Amino acid sequence: xxxxxTLTLGFANALLVQAQGIILVDTGxxxxxxxxxxxxxxxxxxxxxxxxxxxTHGHADHFGHAxxxxxxxxxxxMCHRLAVKALAGGEQAPVVPRNALGERALKLLRPNxxxxxxxxxxxxxxxxxxxxxHPYGIPGEIIATPGHTDCSLSLLLxxxxxxxxxxxxxxxxxxxxxxxxFATNEQALLASMKRLLQQAHTFYGGHGGPFTKDEVxxxx
Length: 220
Ligand SMILES: [Zn+2]
Known about the structure:
26% of the residues lie in helices and 24% in strands. The strands form 3 sheets. Strands 1-2-3-4-5-6 form a 6-stranded mixed β-sheet. It has 220 residues and is α/β, with parallel strands linked by helices. Strand 13 (202-204) and strand 14 (211-212) form a beta hairpin. The longest helix has 14 residues, at 186-199. It has a single domain, classed as Ribonuclease Z/Hydroxyacylglutathione hydrolase-like (Metallo-beta-lactamase, Chain A). Zinc ion is lined by residues 57, 59, 148, 166.
């Protein structure tokens, strides 16, 4: 039985995936250590129990506290090979509007940009087609799902749940689910979403969700 806990940490969420093992997906940004500790205490989880920290992509609101959590938990940080430059440099991968909504959202976000994070050296880098999570006590795998960024990853759990980073996001204006309005490669984004839809029915994002398969199908 796998449980997914959403940690609402402000601008971006982190997710805890708990089965036999516990892994953390993304880290939020501008979150105090006290807030983190309180979130873990509420779930009855010790930071030292976390076995892996997965970063879905190289945007700073997702890896902002990766260096801190690496220290606090002792767990390895894992990302896609193409995210290493962003993480190790503390600077984020490009944010490219895909449509009019993306242009409007970027204007809204601009006063908060650039988002800078403490640089972090990843311990594990995904270079293959998939990364098996069973050794970490989680029934599932990580697959490359490029499009929002070149370095985007998703977790695909055997339960049919998926954690997809920013591939699915709520509109900052209406709250409605949207396919990423920022994308470096729109075709790749669509292909990644279709692949995920073939294997999952529930989708957790870095800023909202979960979204159902029916909600997502309406977006394509
Ligand atoms: Zn992003």
